[in-house]
Amino acid sequence: MKACVYTLGCKVNTYESEYIMLKLIEAGYDVVNNLDEESDVYIINTCTVTNTADIKSRKIINRIKRNNPNACIVALGCYVEDHPSDDLGIDIYIGNKDKSKIVELLDLYFTNKEPIRRVGLNKEKFEDMYITDFKNRCRAFVKVQDGCENFCSYCIIPYVRGKCRSKDLDTVVSEVTALVNKGFKEIVLTGIHTGHYGVDLDTSFADLLNALVKINGLKRLRISSVEITELTDEVLDIIKNNKVIVDHLHIPLQAGSDKILKLMNRKYDLEYFENKLKEIRKIRPNISITTDIIVGFPNENEEDFNETIENSKKFGFSKIHVFPYSDRVGTVASKMDGHIDGNIKKDRARKLLDVSRELEKEYANKFIGETLEVLFEEVKDGVSIGHTSNYLKVKVKGSIPSNTFKNVKIKSYLLDSLIGEVDN
Questions:
Q1: % pLDDT > 70, the chain
Q2: How far apart are CA 172 and CA 145, in angstroms?
Q3: Are strands 288-295 and 319-324 parallel, antiparallel or unpaired?
């Protein structure tokens, strides 16, 4: 049988879908990821982080159901967990607990021909997944943690992912080692709250990093996202002394106003954030620091937004991922007064994106004339494309095999990419 797996949302979902695909292949399925390719089974790994993600999840499920009336349709993940009573008339509807059991659930469905519904978290146990390959990619994701207990006032994720649960440290080391031995040169650590790794295992994120940087053959270790409060002295010491950890950290700020940070229930203020950035740049002067910022949060006035603009420039981010505030029913922020008009949110998002583009260009231009090591990933229209340690996209004329490192002399910056020549 043929199965199509389609993924929405975050890197954790991408990892989980990869695991699902590998398990399906082991069970004898022909696996594809093109929704337009006729299949016997369609599996949609959903997202619910924003209203837009909800709409997208429903739209894709309904489209597949409409176009493939005889196929088995599976919806799983965060949208399902947040909408337990909305099964959309599909065959298998499961939340965030039994993704690893997809093959046996399909067997059960094809045996009994009865709908299956399994929504509700296992709040105590990490659902173990272990992969030894990552199809069609040069960098492999490894999920080390699930769940979040921060309960930021705008966020639905703690309710659909549950409390923090971590993968056994030795298992992570074994999984990363297996992927490196398979030929992967860059590993990305991912989780719902990655820096909170180990709180349930009597270990820590620093312990995990310290173990992974010692793996023979690992060239790059990337952290998908980390909170500023989790960059402890121990973590920073490991970053300082191990060049395997890349020159890039994604640290969500979420707002550049102390008033809004407090309303968001974030665990730091602007002074703390700025001082920690200074510590990081002291040990890694050229590091790329990217961030997430939400605009139009309830009670954000023009003064608050302008403060966000100024602090974004002051903190010197190399890229800002901008999100207009999305009301999530069930969160504290949803019940707040002072919700912002949608047009104002769009206008603020546009303005902050303009700032992000300026900052991206300013950061990238620092490297013109430098020679950077690039991991090449693909060739498009006779141009090889890859990324540096600090996650700058680099383009070079000619065909360079994927998963290959080359030193590249940077000549210019165009649109979103550095342009260079291989330095022989």
A1: 99
A2: 10
A3: parallel
Q: What is the amino acid identity at position 254?
A: Q
**Token pair recorded at residue 421:** 């020549």
Distance between CA atoms of 283 and 237, rounded to whole angstroms?
9
Return d(Cα 55, Cα 326) in angstroms, integer: 12
For residue 411, the tally of other CB atoms under 10 A from its CB is 13
Q: Are strands 371-380 and 319-324 parallel, antiparallel or unpaired?
A: unpaired
> Considering Cα of 234, then 240, then 244, then 250, what sign does the dihedral take?
positive
What residue type is assigned to position 41 of the chain?
Answer: V
At 193-247, the pLDDT tens digits run 999 999 999 999 999 999 999 999 999 999 999 999 999 999 999 999 999 999 9
CA distance linking residue 219 with residue 373, whole number of Å:
11
Angle between helices 233-241 and 205-212 (to 10 degrees): 10
Give the other-Cβ count within 10 Å of 361's Cβ: 13
**Largest Cα–Cα separation, the chain:** 65
Q: DSSP labels for 56-73?
A: HHHHHHHHHHHH-TTSEE
* Structure tokens belonging to residue 11: 């890197």
Q: What is the pLDDT of residues 369-416, one digit of tens each?
A: 999 999 999 999 999 999 999 999 999 999 999 999 999 999 999 989
**What is the residue type of 97?**
K
The span from the CA of 306 to the CA of 348, in Å, is 9
Q: How far apart are CA 1 and CA 20, in angstroms?
A: 15
Contact 228, 272 (CB under 8 A): yes
Domains within the chain, CATH numbers bracketed: 2-118 (3.40.50.12160), 125-246 (3.30.750.210), 249-366 (3.30.750.200), 371-422 (2.40.50.140)
